[in-house]
Design a protein that fits this description.
Number of helices: 3
Helix content: 55-70%
Order of helices and strands: HHHEE
Pfam family, one: HD_3
Strand content: 5-15%
Radius of gyration: 20 Å
Protein name: HD domain-containing protein
Structural class: mainly alpha
Number of strands: 2
InterPro entries: HD_domain
């Protein structure tokens, strides 16, 4: 498995973009990672919340045999 460093990943994320756009994306990623603004802090918190939600997903499908809601917690 090939491991890519963080800086290499950042370069890959903006590869092929016009330089002005690539610079804006790099700046926003740096702001996000440094938690330099209320928006960056909120975005980082939202990412953490999303991970937590994905970790415990209640089943919202119905039981196919009797039509009742599934109450299992899937981890």
């Amino acid at each position: 498995m090939l491991r890519v460093g963080e800086e290499d990943m950042r370069l890959l994320q903006v590869a092929g973009m016009p330089e002005l756009l690539a610079e804006a994306v790099r700046d926003l990623v740096a702001e996000y990672e440094a938690k330099e603004s209320p928006e960056a802090i909120c975005a980082r918190d939202a990412d953490k919340l999303e991970c937590m939600i994905q970790g415990i997903v209640p089943c919202i499908e119905f039981n196919s045999t009797n039509g009742t809601p599934c109450t299992k917690i899937h981890r």
